[in-house]
Design goal:
The protein is α/β, with parallel strands linked by helices. The protein is built from nine helices and 15 strands. The structure holds NADP nicotinamide-adenine-dinucleotide phosphate. NADP nicotinamide-adenine-dinucleotide phosphate binds next to α1, α2 and α3.
Length: about 325
């Protein structure tokens, strides 16, 4: 139908959000100075929480979920954007309090958008998604805290989205990557992405000692809880850990010993409200430091119709790597 576009819409339900496929019009979109013809979105862990209601991610009803999208600018009242510009959006509360990426059209604040570098296609931007962009922010934080290529870096939640992209970036930059996973059957996949060593996540999932054997100079942790406590306790003197996720839990049952006896730095990573300059730096670096063949190897294609099921699967730890959702398929 002319003037309409297809979208997933979440309405408040008794226990979980009610998810429906709807044909909407621009009148259904929220305020913003740039309208984007959305081409691709993706499914992150947070999208799984939003779609299933496993956590109260959605703050406005009804809402188009989807925390990421890429596409082309259709209309712009923002001086920084013109029709045809290729753009990506990650976070800023989109898919939480503002209509998101599971639709063929989006209207947002231009200040939330980043122009994609030539080396990253709109499809690749969603293979990267919030997960991959968070991986890059994490690697930047390790670099800023003195972790040098050649040293051992641990990646937890390795077969997930953040983990898979982090492994590929770190391997290309010349780090020796140790991947921690609960899916040892994925060891070959993880080695294909660049992991030098694969360990079972059970080694890290139980209550931690204040200090353990020094094993890695840095870590990208997507898991939190006991895992992060163990990661800190086994980080080498002067090392750094980027904490970006909570797949095991939001708690941090750790001691201060790694900080006061080994000078470890714990760097917090937030992708949602990260300032524009940091985002642009992350995308510039992704364009050079992420092997696009590896990105392809960790990605799979999906349609808008597949999104509700993928939301359940990602929470059940059944999704490997990154989903590219073609919203027009
Ligand atoms: N800080 C930010 O701005 C930001 C941005 C994006 C994501 N995140 C967070 O980062 C985490 C990963 O996101 P994602 O999109 O990569 O999700 P994902 O694809 O589902 O990956 C999470 C991975 O964590 C591991 N895992 C799951 N449950 C676990 C448990 N109980 N104990 C230990 N490991 C477990 C699994 O890896 P294996 O199968 O390999 O064990 C899983 O694949 C999530 O907590 C997400 O909310 C934060």
């Amino acid at each position: 139908m002319t003037g309409t576009f297809r979208a997933i819409r979440a309405s408040k339900g008794e226990k979980a959000p009610q998810i429906e496929f709807a044909n909407l019009t621009e009148a259904d979109l929220m305020d913003g100075d740039v309208t984007v013809a959305v081409e691709y979105s993706t499914v992150n862990y947070k999208d799984g929480l939003a779609l299933t209601g496993a956590a109260p991610i959605i703050r406005h009803w009804p809402l188009i979920p989807g925390i990421d999208f890429s596409g082309k600018v259709e209309k712009s009242d923002n001086p920084n954007f013109k029709p045809g510009d290729r753009v990506v959006l990650n976070g800023w509360g989109v898919g939480e309090g503002h209509n998101g990426g599971y639709a063929q059209k989006a209207r947002v604040k231009g200040d939330w958008l980043v122009k994609l570098p030539d080396a990253i296609s709109n499809e690749q931007a969603m293979a990267i998604g919030t997960a991959g962009y968070t991986s890059m922010l994490s690697v930047l934080a390790l670099e800023k805290n003195g972790v040098k290529p050649g040293s051992d870096v641990l990646v937890t939640g390795a077969a997930g989205g953040v983990g898979s992209v982090a492994i590929a970036i770190l391997a290309k930059l010349g780090y020796r990557v140790i991947a921690s996973t609960g899916r040892m059957s994925e060891a070959d996949y993880l080695k294909g992405l660049g992991a030098d060593e694969v360990i079972d996540r059970n080694e890290l999932s139980n209550p931690a000692k204040p200090l353990g054997k020094e094993r890695w100079a840095g870590a990208v942790d997507a898991v939190g809880s006991h895992t992060l406590a163990n990661v800190l306790s086994m980080t080498k003197y002067g090392g750094a850990v980027a904490a970006c996720g909570l797949a095991q839990g939001m708690d941090l049952p750790a001691s201060v010993a790694p900080f006061i006896l080994r000078g470890i730095t714990l760097a917090g990573i937030d992708s949602v409200m990260a300032p524009k300059e940091k985002r642009e730096e992350a995308y510039r670096r992704l364009a050079t430091d992420l092997d696009m063949k590896k990105l392809e190897a960790m990605s799979f294609r999906a349609k808008l119709d597949d999104v509700p099921k993928l939301g359940q699967d990602i929470l059940a730890g059944k999704v490997r790597g990154r989903a590219i959702v073609d919203v027009n398929a």
